[in-house]
User: What shape does this take?
Amino acid sequence: MENDKRQRDYTYIQREEQHRLDGKGEVKSKEIKTSEVLELYGEQVERLIAKDDKPLSDKDAKKEEEKLQKLIEKRKNESEHDRKKREEKDEKEREQGRQFVREVADAYNFHFAGIESLAGRDTFVIDAEPLPGYQAHMKEAKILPKFRFRAWIDKDESQWKKLDIQCIDTVSFGLFLARFHKGSRIMLEQTRVNDEVWLPQHVAVKVDVRLALLKNFNIEDDLTFRDYKKFRTNTKIVPLGELQPQH
Assistant: This one.
């Protein structure tokens, strides 16, 4: 929970590369988006800065800048009632996320699998298998028995460094509008920043999905996170054209 609070103090660059695959596993299409992620008025927002690893055109960059400035003006002129309502909704969602994490402890049998070094840090390797007879307390946790995972827990910080999550049964979302099939997989990695917080480093997702009972399609999604900077209240939001290129 403390780590979650500290995460809000950082801005960063997020690069997402998504592949759509055909039935043979060949790439049908590829899309790459790079965004700057900011925390404004307690809300996390993204500003697109590149497509397919190329800077946005002046026209698209202007649109992104206008969207950001529009949000800033909206938050500046927000009434106390609306601000409080928005913050309460955000905190409610965060608390639901914390409850979900707490349910994980009840949903699995955990087994110690050894010690491994990741990025120069010793980690405890823990395997988690669904606990027979588990009954979820919140509806979002009902999917837990359909996944198994391996976790690498930092030995010194007791934070997870890496998660390898595998789907072992079909998972349905949104009244069967979307189904994740057996074999889908998610890999997540975190890194320690400024000796005070753990932040996302890499997320790799490979899913076999059926939407609205239509034909299946496969997606590979790869996200990387970099250039973490501690956000300060006096940080100035500048137009994209004023940003200096990074090397």
